[in-house]
């Protein structure tokens, strides 16, 4: 269990907890959301709130088939959560690389394959694939430098930004100000990612998803270097929040 740092002690964080990595993941998630909305069925696949609402609406309208369909992306998301809980310990024994690093590499491969799938294919194939990788990313990257973070959607960041703003106004403390900045940057890079990919959609259509692999590739290189060089003796140390 991680001990609380002493007053004059700086808390140690692994590379997979650094804010720069979280910003890159959040930008990629904004691109994924814009991609599925613009080109793959007009939906957001980064979370499951919409699917639950749509399932309730479909069943309420007695459209049983469509209502039951929404169980597929929901279970794909659930499957990603379960896998991201089971695999971290076994896979880090392979080449002494953390699950976090493997996951980002896997996401890059999935998004690269998606870029080759023509828009004529059923959109559900891409939607479920992105559901799956987003759920693993959400469950794997939980805290950035001691601050709870979600790297696939914005709602929590808006709430935390508001909470931290009120705390800073009342106390004028540096920690609240730090949290305000972190959540604001997460919101901005998510927005920027969505904006950039939307513009690119008009030029290269389904292949525009490859833009989302750029921030992921930068994060992957950063984490792989940490696993093999900087933190090779810390392979058994768990990130905060796990």
Task: Describe, in plain words, how this protein is organized in 3D.
With 242 residues, this protein is mostly helical. The protein has a single domain (18-228), classed as Growth Hormone, Chain: A (Up-down Bundle). The chain has helices at 19-39, 49-60, 64-69, 71-86, 88-91, 99-116, 123-140, 155-171, 174-204, 213-230, and strands spanning 143-144, 147-148. Strands 1-2 form a two-stranded antiparallel sheet. The longest helix has 31 residues, at 174-204. It is globular. The chain starts with 18 loop residues before the first helix and ends in a 12-residue tail after the last helix.
Keywords:
242 residues, mainly alpha, Growth Hormone, Chain: A, two-stranded antiparallel sheet, 10 helices, 2 strands, 67% helix
Mean pLDDT level: 92
Task: Please list the strands of the largest sheet in the order they lie side by side.
Answer: 1-2
Domain module count: 1
Question: Could you tell me how far the N terminus lies from the C terminus, measured between alpha carbons in angstroms?
Answer: 10 Å
Reported CATH architecture? Up-down Bundle
Number of DSSP E strands: 2
Q: Which percent range describes the beta-strand content?
A: under 5%
Question: How are helices and strands ordered from N to C?
Answer: HHHHHHHEEHHH
- In CATH, the topology is named Growth Hormone, Chain: A
**Can you tell me the CATH class?**
Mainly Alpha
Secondary-structure class: mainly alpha
The biggest sheet, with number of strands, parallel, antiparallel or mixed sense and barrel status, is: 2 strands, antiparallel
Question: Rg from C-alpha positions?
Answer: 19 Å
Low-pLDDT stretches: none
| SS field, number of helical segments | 10
Helix content: 55-70%
Shape: globular
